[in-house]
Structures are given as structure tokens and as C-alpha cells.
């Protein structure tokens, strides 16, 4: 990238030389703007953290007593003549895009984002800019999400069907973001909602900000009879562990954008796949870029080759930069299946 660029990519992260500050750095730095609380974007070891105020409880829970300052949406702050502001990314609670302006030139780093309003976090806000840095986690035309309401109708029907058959429903979703989204849209009239300890801990951190239904933590004292016929929210890492024995008999379901591909559910060895992602699908990515009115697009983590090539074909100045961000993680076997699909 040119030295005159507002933001550059180096070995520590995305850097603004004029302001001497990083955005979501992957190595320890003095000053860092953090877009959201997922561990690939919010890392330990920085001296000073700037983030949206709703993200502070999350990153303090994960990183400890860090030196952090909270910023409100659309609140400009100035560093060495560069104007920054945070704007809703719609990815998870507290997730931000970062707008950077200097002498009339505007860049936007989207972080991770989705354009559908999930009813949990502050909805995505389009921002006009000259250069947009966008993720491409699901940057293939094959990724097309159904409306969220349809997905949760499927999930609640699945839960009710399992209950009718005398089975417990175990739903796997990421501890931060996905788990709370599932929780907010389950139908509590069907039964009780139980949680894995990791999910419960994060949910308790977020309860002051979200009006979530009651949950019941599964402990050593919890009996299988108490859980039977109800729903359990757990992280993907709990699948196949001895912790699952209390749920027998059970059916498992995975909530992920990767469930859009055949074979993904089978390789995760779950009974049911629900296509639910906290990232944009192909059309969401294209629409957000169009609304930004950017002429230059920098593509990061995901299907960058295919997506950037398509953007160039339709007239954008599109390029690729490597980062240490993981997007919505998937195992190698599923990724190989997707690439050959």
C-alpha cells in the first residue's frame, strides 16, 4: 500500500501512521481501537484500549483489568489531526465499524459485520467513504441467508418436536454473540432454557444490556430428569465431551453460516444444521459496499480471491490484505468440501 494511505497493514495490525494508533492489532501495541470482543479482534497486551462502551464489560471479562476508554456511536474523537468515530457493525453486541477521516479522505474498517437486524445488537449503519476495508468470511454467491425469523421458526419447531419425542435439544453456538442471539429468539413457552457454564458466564456479563429470558446453568447437581425435553445452549467445543452425558437422550443442532453447505453438518456430527451467521452473506457484502459509495475496496479474511475478483469485474478498485482475523471459524474438512462444491 502507498505510504500516503490513511490505514496500512503491517506485522502488528491495521495501522494509522498519522495518528499512531492501531485497529484490532494482533500483536501488542501502545494504542488500540477494538471493534468487538471476539478473541481474534480483542487481544491481550495493549497499553491503551478504545472501544464502544457496551464492549467494555466483554473485553474486561476476557482480558482482565485493562486500561480502556469507552466511546459512543458517532462520537468523533481526534488524534494528531485525524478524526475517528465508531459506528454500529451489527455483528454482535458492542461491535463497531471504525470511520477514519483526514483532509477530506474517508476510510472505513468494517470489522466483522452483518446487515440483517438481529434484534439483539445495534443494527448495522452504512457509512459513506472513499475506501472500505471489508471482511469476506462468506464471500461466495452460494451463501444466501434466509430471514432470521424463518430460521428461528425452524429451531423452535425442532425443539418442540424433540420434546414430543422425549428428547433434549442441544444447540451449539459461539459463546459470545451467537449464544445470546439464540437465547433471545427461543420460545420459552416450550420449556426451560439450560446453559453450559461458558455460555452462562458470558450471558451474565451481558444481562445488564439485554432483556434476555431466564436461563438455568447446568452444574454437577443438575439431574438428567430436570433437563429432559428442554433446550441446552452450549459452545461447539462441548460437542462429544463427557459433559454431554447428562443430556441423554438428545438431538444436537449447530447454528452457523457453514450449515449452508452439504456435508458441513455431517462433518460436525450434529443431527441438524441451522443456517445462522453473524456475518454478511454474498448479497449483504455487495449491498454494504454499494451503500458506502466507496470506489476502493480492500478485502480481508475469508474468500478474498473470489470476492475481490468479482468486485474488479464490476468496476471497483479491489485488492486483498492478509490479517490474523479468523471470521467465523470452520474446520479444514468442511472448508475443503466448500471449495470443491
UniProtKB/TrEMBL annotation:
InterPro entries: MBL, RibonucZ/Hydroxyglut_hydro, Xnuc_lig_assoc. Gene3D superfamilies: Ribonuclease Z/Hydroxyacylglutathione hydrolase-like. PANTHER family: BLL1145 PROTEIN, CLEAVAGE AND POLYADENYLATION SPECIFICITY FACTOR FAMILY MEMBER. This is mRNA 3-end processing factor. It comes from Algoriphagus winogradskyi.
